[in-house]
């Protein structure tokens, strides 16, 4: 990532710090440590269609994942929304024990809480390599340019 704006560099550093701590806990399958990185009222959408709110629901999501999955990330963009509030995009790759991978685009908002930055909003969207799955009727209605290759 090449960022020339000092404010953007600072915000990218804040996001990278938050995601580095998340990755460390994720790779070691420590959901109790992961949820401490989220604000108490965090909004969360992982790769399931269920929208989650708060640490308990986020804990249950990560706890249900099988151990052995690891993650890598790269910050794509970062912005300051307001004082003590930053947002951005990251590219994630999850690697499973059998070497399968899943590519994900992540948007997140982090909020300063004292000396710590907590994840206040986390939204993951799977990206597809090669042929994409067929477009659902709802997706086609929302995007008239979508092509169903089924």
TrEMBL record:
Annotated InterPro entries: NTF2-like_dom_sf (IPR032710), SnoaL-like (IPR037401), Steroid_delta5-4_isomerase (IPR011944)
Domain SnoaL-like: 17-126
Signal peptide as annotated in the record: none
Name of the featured protein: Nuclear transport factor 2 family protein
Organism, as annotated: Paenarthrobacter ureafaciens
Lineage: Bacteria, Bacillati, Actinomycetota, Actinomycetes, Micrococcales
